[in-house]
Fold this sequence. Notes:
Blueprint: H1 4-7, H2 32-35, E1 46-51, H3 59-73, E2 77-80, H4 97-108, E3 111-117, H5 125-133, E4 148-154, H6 162-173, E5 177-178, E6 183-185, H7 202-221, H8 225-228, H9 232-250
Parallel strand pairs: 1-2, 1-3, 3-4, 4-5, 4-6
Amino acid sequence: xxxxxxxxxxxxxxxxxxxxxxxxxxxxxxxxxxxxGREPSRHAPRFLLLYGSLRERSYxxxxxxxxxxxxxxxxxxxxxxxxMGLPLPDSAPDDHPKVRELRExxxxxxxxxxCSPERHGSMTGIMKTQIDWIPLNVGAVRPTQxxxxxxxxxxxxxxxxxxxxxxxxxxxxxxxxxxxxxxSVAKAFLEFDEAGxxxxxxxxxxxxxxxxxxxxxxxxxxxxxxxxxDRYSERRESAEQLSKRVNERSV
Length: 251
């Protein structure tokens, strides 16, 4: 077995004796040059925020609005999607106005915040409906792949992490870069004043922490996202498809 320190010196473009199942022409050796190969973007980072309740005094919406204020104060551009009127998945065509609005925002965003109440030990159906309407791919475009994600939840009782844990699974499934930090606000009805603003507390400070971390990760990864999510298996599949098309044309 070749030691890792020696493997790093192997010129895979010449020979790969220990990796017979890998195509040397498509194999990548990640380097810092690949990550820093382009001029960094200068526009304000773009964030889409989703919440999971339609109540008039929705605490997931109120936390989301606080998160939006924080991201804007840091210099970000924020859009909050209102799920009112969004149909259930598969119950309406893709050109439904609310579906189209959500999908356009998902493509526009460079990072997202998902905040759901915990209901019966899980995220709400309203939260899941929004995520289900965001496709894994639209033609050759993957609306969420490589974008950053922060997850939060609110609870009516004691602190829980069921919803944020489920949101993390969905974020991975959507090929997003979910940041390590997260927020779970317990007894949310005690954490807001009559105007709907969050009171000073450790819960509020955690929301600040999460948004700060999301902003930093978005700045760090948004320009490198195409390279970070570039996969050997997909490069190989693309090469095979290209070869097949060329061969068909030559017949």
